[in-house]
Amino acid sequence: EKTQRPKFKNPVCYSAPLDSDSESDSDDALEQQWPTPHPVPEEQRLRLERLVLEPRNLNDAYKETIRDISIAPVADAIVRKHQEYRLEALRRKKAWQEEHQRRKERGSQKAEMLAANVALVIMDEQESLDEEIEKRIKAQEKRIQAAVELARKVQEEIAVEEKTKAEKEKKDREEQENEARKREAAEKERKERMAQSVATSTKGLEEYKEYYATIDNYRANIKPLLKQPEFRKQCFEARRLIKRTIIQLQYKHEVILEKYCVLRDHLLNTKNQSIEAFHIMLNHTAKVFLLQARQEIHATPFAAYFLGRFATLLCSSIPELQNYVIARLFKWCPYLIPQYHDDNPNISHTEIKKLLRYEYDEDTKKFEQFIPYLERQKCFVMFYAALVQTVPDPGQPPNPFPIARGWTWLARTCNMPPREVSPALIQSFLEIAGKQMLKTYPHQLPKVLRIILDNIVPTIPMQHNYDNKADIARLEIYIKTFFETGELKAVPEAMEPTVK
Fold first, then answer.
1. How far apart are CA 45 and CA 388, in angstroms?
2. Whole-model pTM above 0.85?
3. Which CATH number is associated with domain 207-485?
4. pLDDT tens-digit profile of 109-160?
5. In the chain, where the domains are located
6. Are 423 and 461 within 8 A, CB to CB?
7. Residues 6+ apart with CB under 8 A from 266
8. DSSP secondary structure letter of residue 244
């Protein structure tokens, strides 16, 4: 059977718009939007029908269909629509441009008005700012003027103060200079008086002050530490060995050397532990030396030799001990300076005795008698003579107290008028140091002895109880014996053996 072909009344394929069901759409609107296309020619319709009904390749049929379909009506509609759209676009663009121009003109007017308002505001603000700046400038000028005025016043006050200060300093300086001149004049007068003094050796006193500065420093800085219980206990235990060692001394050189090594090591060990304790030990050692010299030399004069040898050994190894020994020795025996304290009429006889180290009995309220006082002073002079005459044994350090010191003391004593104590002290010195001095000064010493015999002995004042009469006679005989024999009699360095 032949397949019945469908019959197309209208071969134009047409699709209604998507919103064709809307009530608002009318045929007029549709006609206006999509006008009715022109009828397709018969020949073309038949060809399209054949293409649709005949079986063939879909791709080829599609291409042929597309080629044969006339799109002229659609194209015309599109062109018309496009032209309308362009016209509408041009109209809208023109309207927009006109509106934009109007807005621009209105905006320009507003901008001009705003700029004018801003300019007015700025002018107002500028005027206000100018006024404020002017006020501030004036205020600043006032402050500057006030500051300048204040600075001027301050400078004037400073100038017045500086002037006052300068005047005061000048006045103080003048007063100080006047005081200094007065002090210099007084010191010069004192030195001249001391130079002319017959009671004090100026050089000897200066040397004594240098030595005694060590004692002053000890009292000011070291001695107060003994108030501390632990430190005082430590020093007390360390001092025991010092006294025990010194009282065990004897004339044998090997014993002296042994005890010297013991005490030297003890002092140096103390120094390594505490410098303050070391100075406590030095001061104590000097005191023990002098106390031992006072006791032993009075009992046995030859003790001066081994005490002096021991002291020179220890002082050569420990130089700090020298000032303590000499300062204490000169303090206890002012005749070694020499200083007699009897040239000042304002000092009473009692004060002179105190300065000369007379011992005072608080119970009886009396000073000791002349003879025991003189015996003690002789011990100190003999100890000093032993120091300066000691010749170290081979291998031992040099003596820090050279024989020249003995010569200096003898010369100073002879250059001053003699006192009641002079004969006993001179003879005691010569009996210990005479041989060594004669060996050192073989030509000068005999001349000094001649001066003593001829000029000094005859002028020695007699003590009111004639307690020094025997001393004067002994000194005269002692020196005469020297000129007769050429030898100075000396105290033996050891106790002479007694033959039963």
1. 168
2. no
3. 1.25.40.510
4. 777 788 777 777 777 777 787 788 888 888 888 888 888 888 888 888 888 8
5. 207-485
6. no
7. 238, 241, 242, 245, 281
8. H
